């Protein structure tokens, strides 16, 4: 969640707390027993027999969590059948503590998203040795400035694509202060019903309408990448599709394993909202990895074929448009070949000019 200061980002935390309130109660009991163990351990000298350490089974981890504590929690969840943990961070800088250091953030985040095994080996007794699959749901709140500083050196290593962005633009100065209320008992009752449906959904399923929609959206993103001649857009779009597909699976399970058209609309919105949010916050940095520009809107990928006035144009016209967006002349011929292959344009053998096809002109924008 990315919003400006006083952008009401705290609403996300209230929903997270509501979804994890049962974990919070059980974690409090586990932490109480763990604190008692620590007191007993410290009271006994090294000559006396100390109790064997049993790390608490925590599902809703505190925001101030170190890397060793996080890995121990993952190992405990692994021992209990591969349970999932949840972490809600109010500031993006807390990821540095969770992952050990900022240099290790990209490694841990990618392992979380990919649900890969993390192996640790230490030579000392006090060190943490073991392995676990990182099953973690992670939500982070921050401001655009902090997000730009955090991802400045990790734009093109796959980390950014794995993180789902939701950007909330600055609102109007309407003179109203938002008020936070309380969730009703009916809200909690319905929420518990939905959480129970998720918990009962086990096994392997094929949601054909969702898979068909994702394939269609993948083709749309590929076409957009060709129209804008932007590889970065396509690279990020692939993981936006996967994140939206996961959300679609959850909605399908929550709706008693039934797919509806409105769910498809939400999945499609999630894909484009994620990509739009990233370009609104990091657009100029994604252009060439340069954070010096100020006008973000000027570097958002643009459909160059729509920029061409009229339906017929020459190769030189496309070269001129590419130059305005900082693209090289050498890529013009390749872009024209791709447009012809996708059916966007046709080339006249007589005069060598290119014409937009009727199918492209009639497409849904």
Round the mean pLDDT to the nearest integer and report it: 85
Q: Compute the separation of the termini in Å.
A: 28 Å
Uncertain parts = 289-297
The number of distinct helices, counting runs of at least 4 residues, comes to 15
Strand order of the largest sheet: 2-3-6
Radius of gyration from the alpha-carbon trace, in angstroms:
25 Å
Strand content: 5-15%
Domains, number: 3
Overall shape: it is: elongated
Largest sheet: 3 strands, parallel
What is the strand tally? 10
Q: What does this molecule look like?
A:
- Helix 9 runs antiparallel to helix 10 and helix 10 runs antiparallel to helix 11.
- The two termini are 28 Å apart.
- The chain contains 15 helices and ten strands.
- The protein has three domains: 2-150, no CATH class; 208-299, no CATH class; 304-361, Winged helix-like DNA-binding domain superfamily/Winged helix DNA-binding domain (Arc Repressor Mutant, subunit A, Orthogonal Bundle), CATH 1.10.10.
- The relative contact order is 0.08.
- The longest helix is centred in the last third of the chain and has 28 residues, at 261-288.
- The chain is mainly α.
- Strands 2-3-6 form a three-stranded parallel β-sheet. The protein has a three-stranded antiparallel β-sheet with strand order 8-10-9.
- The radius of gyration is 25 Å and the shape is elongated.
